[in-house]
Design brief:
The structure is a homodimer of 510-residue chains. Chain A is an alpha+beta fold. Chain A folds into three domains: 315 residues, Bira Bifunctional Protein, Domain 2 (BirA Bifunctional Protein, domain 2); 59 residues, Herpes Virus-1; 109 residues, Anticodon-binding domain (Rossmann fold), CATH 3.40.50.800. Chain A is built from 19 helices and 26 strands. In chain A, the strands form seven sheets. In chain A, strands 3-10-11-19-16-15-14-12-13 form a nine-stranded mixed beta sheet. At the A-B interface, strand 2, helix 2, strand 3, strand 4 and helix 3 of A face strand 2, helix 2, strand 3, strand 4 and helix 3 of B.
Chain lengths: 510, 510
């Protein structure tokens, strides 16, 4: 995944084929804002459903809520976002262009300047004689820029509100309600899927650094004394993950370690079993979505990369053509947020759980929908010598459209036969697409380009013998199947209980 | 549905049982903002899935997109929202309280003042000597208040953005992309589910008039010459709907007319078949969600209630305890929006569809998620003489939890048996809840209160004979069923292929 123009190629397919486009494109777009098109939206729904089944519905003690995006100032005063949710901004004195100070330093010097103070940043800029990348002008001193979008609520001026920069705050401020819903029995999790907003200084890299994005988050509350007696952990303790420890980062590291989550928790690389459970599940989930295991790892975050209250954070990072990118964050936020809101609101968040007074701790696995979708697009993108078109090797778990039905020709009743078949397959629950325009080869190419796994073609033999051909996206081979077996065969192929090679073998033997 | 305190009772259950709560409640809440709790979120997901299956996935020419909520100023300059998406605001000269002018007039005089000019409003206030409801002070002149929330995008000041007041604009501005995805073949629909924002002067009535809300919308584009040759219409033309015509509203009307959508289109009460199709589907959908047909109707909107470019709008209104409320709007927006954006962006939106140049017209069915959920809550809310608790008579299509599994006692292996059964039922796809705390009668009451349809109890006979009891929410009667038949019986009950009375009859006959 080192091809430099891979992101451009993917953006091109995304635009042409209805995956993603810039928001308000006809007005020149709005930097950092994107719309998911018809295919992107189908992928997003599959991703959210996959996550929801795995992390929420399968667990009796995790429930999902859906909170408001616009929250009053009091919430962010208490949470600390108003004071410190900011990035260092640096401006050119002559052309007035603005940059993120740590980014411009990294680009010019390779120094990782995240988390440095304004004074430290200014010093590096001065020492390295960094100038404005667009006009070579002198740069002003760095200053802090708050990343929250603010607005006024109601007709009375002065009543400020902010678009939430993370979904988590809705959950913390209503903690008492949710604890009561869960009958105060720890551990319990409150999940949320929804938009968050960060007014980034310089959005870039397509879906990676944007100003409006969707998160899938869980706040898992637990008694800190029970952090290593988390019953769900038993099911996943043997899962092997790739990990980058604190110690590895003190030297040059080239390859993550592979170890079981059990070992990682025992060695305190992962702070506790609660986070260990989520890390194991995330690793399994990404693989099921078509992202190869060797391409991602969990990196222990260094002190300057985490807030002061962190009990240990691990980011899931993936190797992309544009560099290593965090697509999931796992944060052990301890009881920091509940304490802050407890104090500011004069509430009591302590609960009596199993006959014991506890202020719960929280572990937060937080996933970016757009970043995961982009990662899937990059890892599934293919260019072959045998095809003149690009294609996506999506697994069925995430493919926006699974199968297509084509009549070989529009005439002689082939189109009607194919249309009926398409509707039957839809009724049977397949995500099917009907296409009768253009030559059959062109239709296969169009289907490959959006990652459709199997194309079913209705030809003259279909009319006579009630058989159709299935064309396999990955091998481009074709098999002929009786209509009466079609649904079972497609089911087995999509569920990966049958390979296309096996299907071809079976045919030969019959 | 005339009980005056019904809304308070529902709010009380919603808060206590995890359906809905105010956003940021611990800070005094934020007027017009709500969070869906665990049960509200499950209902919302069922509602969205129901809508998506019916209106999007079942139709080959309707696709869903997912656009950004924050859009640049250029979009709303072109759409007209910046100039005219406003409500008349009136302020008290002494206590400075603010009100929506037409609402304060309606409350004081019963005059429907929607759509009147500022001068007309001032005149009514003066003539009727309307004073401030809170301090009896003199009211100032009315002025316009724009309902959009504005914010600044990026670090450069002056780059304004607005939270979208409707989901539709994302679709219009990217019309070319979507037309191309649909290969320029009219008719086609672009759907969207997502949040919209309106800075209401005085939010009220719980989920009815809020500042942040979720919409399920479709923009159905068609060739205006084909407006009455809409093939989907054929499937629904005989559906009988309740309707209130323009003529009826010129007199006093007490009861809507019942007629087929076919008649309504032929009589031009519904502007065309495109809207006729959606109206028929909406009527069927609401009934399937537990809202009785006699409680709602489609009202033809009068000229002062629609924008000047409307080709005919019909609101679905429902009778609620707080008055008649619009929960779905059907708008024939003609080619107004495409024309406006075409001009402002200097693009061409004309497409060649079926060898003909067309600037498409659009019909927009727009549904409010919160309003529909509230309507379901009101119509399903029950108080019985036989029960000391309230309950919700949700149909399975919308019930947040369908079944519950209870062990009679926690001891003697009953809890383990029940827990295993619960997990098996979840695996089989039922939305099941396990509860072993408190007396069984109390557990039934708690289940009724959140509308669980069937409670399965594991008792000592279960251990001996592998049978369990099913308790029916609606009748409170119980039937004993062998474990091996349980899934089939539950399936048949939830799918309404079997009534509980029939189940009891079958037992007697065995």
């Amino acid at each position: 995944m080192t091809e430099e123009n891979r992101i451009e190629k993917i953006i091109d397919v995304c635009l042409r084929r209805g995956f993603v486009n810039q928001s308000a494109e006809i007005y020149g777009g709005s930097s950092g804002f994107f719309d998911l098109g018809p295919l992107g939206t189908l992928m997003r729904q599959k991703l959210v459903d996959f996550w929801r089944q795995l992390f929420v519905l399968d667990n009796d003690n995790i429930f999902e809520i859906d909170g408001s995006l616009l929250l009053p100032e009091s919430v962010f005063k208490a949470s600390g976002h108003l004071d410190s949710f900011e990035d260092p901004l640096i401006q050119c004195k002559s052309c007035k262009s603005m940059y993120r100070a740590d980014h411009i330093i990294a680009q010019n010097t390779g120094i990782s300047a995240e988390g440095l103070s304004l004074e430290e940043l200014d010093k590096i800029v001065e020492e390295n004689k960094i100038v404005c990348p667009s006009c070579k002008g002198e740069l002003d001193k760095a200053r802090q820029f708050n990343l929250m979008f603010s607005t006024g609520i109601g007709p009375v001026s002065g009543n400020k509100g902010y678009l939430r920069p993370e979904t988590a705050q809705n959950i913390f401020v209503n903690f008492k309600r949710y604890a009561s819903f869960m009958r105060n029995k720890l551990p319990f999790g409150i999940a949320q899927v929804g938009k968050s907003f960060r007014n980034e200084i310089s959005p870039r890299n397509f879906l990676i650094r944007v100003r409006e994005f969707e998160q899938m988050e869980i706040e898992m509350f637990f008694d800190p004394e029970m952090a290593n007696k988390f019953s769900l952990f038993d099911f996943v303790e043997d899962v092997e993950i790739n990990i980058v420890t604190k110690e590895m980062q003190e030297k040059e590291w080239s390859k993550p370690l592979s170890m079981s989550v059990k070992d990682a928790v025992e060695k305190r690389i992962i702070p506790n079993q609660v986070m260990g459970y989520f890390i194991a599940m995330e690793s399994e989930m990404l693989q099921a979505l078509g992202i190869p295991k060797e391409s991602f790892w969990f990196r222990f975050m260094l002190p300057h990369e985490t807030p002061h209250y962190s009990g240990g954070n691990l980011d899931l990072e993936v190797k992309l053509s544009i560099g290593n990118v965090e697509i999931i964050g796992n944060a052990y936020r301890t009881d920091y947020d509940l304490k802050k809101h407890q104090k500011a609101s004069k509430s009591t968040f302590t609960i009596v759980s199993n006959n014991k007074k506890v202020l719960p701790h929280v572990v937060e696995p937080s996933m970016g929908v757009g970043r995961i979708l982009y990662t899937i697009l990059e890892y599934c993108y293919r260019e072959d010598e045998s095809r003149t078109w690009s294609w996506f090797k999506f697994p069925a778990s995430i493919a926006p459209i699974e199968i297509a039905v084509f009549p070989l020709m529009k005439k002689d009743g082939l189109a009607e036969y194919a249309q009926d078949l398409h509707l039957d397959l839809k009724d049977a629950g397949f995500v099917s697409f009907y296409d009768d325009s253009g030559k059959i080869g062109k239709r296969y190419a169009r289907a490959d380009e959006i990652g459709i796994l199997y194309c079913i073609t209705v030809d003259y033999e279909s009319l006579e013998k009630d058989t159709v051909t299935i064309r396999d996206r990955d091998s481009t081979k074709q098999a002929r199947v009786p209509i009466e077996d079609l649904e079972d065969v497609l089911d087995a192929l999509l569920e990966e209980e049958l390979t296309f090679e096996e299907l071809l073998e079976n045919q030969k033997n019959n």
